[in-house]
Amino acid sequence: MADVAPVPSFKRAIGSGYLIQxxxxxEMIGGVEVTLRHAKTTAGSLxxxxxxxxxxxxxxxxxxxxxxxxxxxxxxxxxRNIDLTRFHIEIGRFVVHDVDSMPVLYYLAAQNxxxxxxxxxxxxSNVSQNAFKQRTMT
Length: 138
Prior knowledge:
Largest sheet: 4 strands, mixed
Number of domains: 1
Strand content: 15-25%
Low-confidence stretches: 1-6
CATH architecture: 2-Layer Sandwich
CATH topology: Ribosomal Protein S5, domain 2
Oligomer: single chain
């Protein structure tokens, strides 16, 4: 039987990275959620949604935090030769604190969340391919 490639599904993989540090004089809080989907176009996309973690309200995330999250994913992918054009990537559900948040937290949180989502994506792909092969062999 010829090797048949499965049709891309509408799956998504979600990863998150959050840091909450509570220590006198060293408080920090920040984080994001990253969602991967199949690219809707051949170019793919990477967007930071202006959504806040608990309320899902918009227009509350400083642009610097959004830019750092995007930069973190781009750097992570570049270092590992990951082709971002394969995906539609959304960064959202930012945890923001007026005093204790800082740009570097979003750079690191986005990298962690992307890696988590990518690991799940790859595991789901392996499971899907094995299930597809088993169906076509019977």
